Amino acid sequence: MRIIFLLVLFFSSYVFVSAQKEDSLVIRIMADDILKNGKAYDNLFYLCKKIGARLSGSENAQKAVDATMRMLKDAGADTVYMQPCMVPHWVRGEKEQGIIQWKKNKKTLNVCALGMSIATPAKGIKAEIIEVANFDELKKLGAEKISGKIVFFNYHMRPELVFDGYGDAVRYRGFGPVEAAKLGAVAVIIRSVTYALDNNPHTGATRYDSTVKKIPAMACSTIDAEWLHQLLLKEKKVELFMKMNCEILPDVESYNVVGEIRGTEIPQEIITVGGHLDSWDLAEGAHDDGAGAIQSIEVIRALKASGIKSIRTVRAVMFMNEENGLRGGTKYSELAVANKEDHVFAIESDSGGFGVISLGIDGKPDQEVKLRSWLPLFRPYGVLDMPDGGGGADIGPLKKIGAVMCSVNPGSQRYFDHHHAANDVFESVNKRELELGALSMAAIIYLVDKYGLPPTQ
Ligand SMILES: [Zn+2]
């Protein structure tokens, strides 16, 4: 009995070890191909330099749809198609102005309108500026002090937060205008949401509440925020003239782009890999999220080029409108529900094209145990961990219909230097880091496809 037990143990561990050996060879083949013959860097160059900013509803967004259709076909996808969805069409218009005026002095700030903001009146707004460090200070000042003024939210990203500084500070971009308007403010200017101390203003979506008056909102660079803070300590009365020319035009039809490799044995089970195609209008959207979109295309190319025949269906999705509406991600999951699709696994890359250090995962305990059993296969390529917490804005809704969630987690300390600002350009992405990110995505998809995961229900 004991001998049989030992034999079974030996045999099963032999099978496990030889399976891992075989898998490590397959991942090595994909790594060789991506690092030697990959197309991710060239494709990112095209998206950034030949097209550029790709805000939803713009001509460039449509060019990006057409270009990634071609790229997915070239990558070897069996089927490439578009999923129509209506998207918001916000335009910045003529460059904004923010001019500080005190006594007889003037200084022009580096500013940009927050995405989805309303414009100022055509002749601009001029009002006294009042600084608050946070929402508590705003509330303490109350309507008496805030009414008729422009509120300057000088909230610093908290340096002690290692990974969560953005999530903490972005509240001021999202909710600042509504909170200030509740107390009668006429406009808002925020310190850009970044740790970097430079002259780049960072945009990003703000939001309104239908029950609160809409007021215009802009961001200034962190250097200007520091300067303004010093000025306000010294001067009693400081005014800001701001002029913004943005506009929300009627919704337009746009598209998610999908490239699919149909599974050979269980095609009804779907694995999704994606990033978003739209990007803010101030830059090239290289890290956010040209990188993630292009890496998803590279997954398809690498699977095909390495001769892997997936038994499940693998879909690379270029989601439209993540930045100011999430209509593409929403449409994708609505169609998945309407078509009764079986989504088993979804992975998103939308945290920049920096070197990947971990893959975040979110599933049931037995699903996570299985995923983590593959971690040794990733270590040679720099992926050191599979922490709890996977997913992303675009794939998020697929969790409700049973998909195990995964996110690509690059080192994030430099990401917010570029995020939504003019320096999010192709040159800021490192070729090998971009490629190794694509490899980590291809490898996890190869393993999930080959072995499957324990069922969600
Ligand atoms: Zn993004």
Report what the structure shows.
The protein has 457 residues and is of the alpha/beta class. The chain is built from 13 helices and 15 strands. The protein has helices at residues 2-37, 40-51, 59-75, 135-146, 165-169, 171-182, 222-234, 286-305, 327-338, 365-372, 375-378, 415-418, 431-451; strands at 79-91, 97-102, 105-108, 111-113, 125-132, 150-153, 187-191, 217-220, 239-243, 247-261, 266-276, 312-319, 342-348, 356-362, 404-410. The strands form 2 sheets. It has an 8-stranded mixed sheet with strand order 3-2-9-5-6-7-8-4, with helices on both faces. A 7-stranded mixed sheet has the order 1-10-12-11-13-15-14, sandwiched between helices. The structure holds zinc ion. Zinc ion (ZN) binds at residues 276, 288-289, 322, 350.
Low-confidence stretches: none
Q: Could you tell me how far the N terminus lies from the C terminus, measured between alpha carbons in angstroms?
A: 36 Å
What structural class is derived from the secondary structure elements? alpha/beta
Strand order of the largest sheet: 3-2-9-5-6-7-8-4
Large-scale geometry: elongated
**N-to-C SSE string, H for helix and E for strand:** HHHEEEEEHEHHEEHEEEHEHEEHHEHH
Radius of gyration: 24 Å
The tally of beta strands, per DSSP, is: 15
Strand content: 15-25%
Profile the largest sheet.
8 strands, mixed
Mean pLDDT: 96
The ligands bound in this entry are: zinc ion
Q: Helical amount among residues, as a percent range?
A: 25-40%
If helices are DSSP runs of H or I spanning 4 or more residues, what is the number of helices?
13
Which characteristics define this entry?
single chain, 457 residues, alpha/beta, 8-stranded mixed beta sheet, 7-stranded mixed beta sheet, 13 helices, 39% helix, elongated, binds zinc ion
